[in-house]
Amino acid sequence: MTQRLSAERRREALAALPGWQEVAGRDAIAKTFTFADFNAAFGFMARVALVAEKLDHHPEWSNVYRTVAVTLATHDAGGVTERDVALATAMERIAAGSGG
Amino acid sequence: MTQRLSAERRREALAALPGWQEVAGRDAIAKTFTFADFNAAFGFMARVALVAEKLDHHPEWSNVYRTVAVTLATHDAGGVTERDVALATAMERIAAGSGG
Q: Which family, according to the similarity comment (chains A, B) (predicted)?
């Protein structure tokens, strides 16, 4: 879970994560989610926060009104690992139920 | 509440808001809060989110593990207003009770 992904595995993972992209100049993946309003955006963040705490793996994220910009990387590994794929996958599931 | 603060009123307001600073190149105020851990940081964000929604005035903020960086400005006024001072004051009160 804490090894950096191979190029092949990363391509495969990103293909299954719509809207997620590589971050220029850094081994990380990112997506900006847009919701109906602040209520929906923060509701998404609250649900993700519980998952992140349970996984003991936390996003870098910012919120401006109804948008939430997320960057995921695994600090200990210096790049993207299966832990980031797991958190991104959970975010997709939660966003689908958050009026996103 | 939605008029930009005078220079005098802004100085007065910032003097009462420890750690808050002007943002270079923009009419806004900002502070980075540091908490004990992600639980405390997100607990702070959750409490602030409820206040922000009630005030109908929302922060620009980012969270990386136990830090929360906040920028406040009033979009409609193109700068800092009493609404920002009110939200910053609420954040100070909440942070004091969030293990910050």
A: Belongs to the pterin-4-alpha-carbinolamine dehydratase family.
The rounded distance, in Å, linking the Cα atoms of B42 and B84 is: 21
* Rounded CA separation B40/B34 (Å): 9
B65 to A42: CB separation less than 8 angstroms, yes or no: no
Q: Please report the domains of chain A, with CATH numbers, ordered by start residue.
A: 7-96 (3.30.1360.20)
Whether residues A60 and B58 touch (CB distance < 8 A) is answered with no
Percent of chain B with pLDDT over 90: 92
By CA distance, what is A67's nearest residue in B?
B60
Helix (H) or strand (E) holding B31: strand B26-34
B67 forms beta bridges with B34, B64
Q: How far is A99 from chain B, CA to nearest CA, in Å?
A: 17
Residue B63 sits at φ, ψ, to 5 deg, of -135, 125
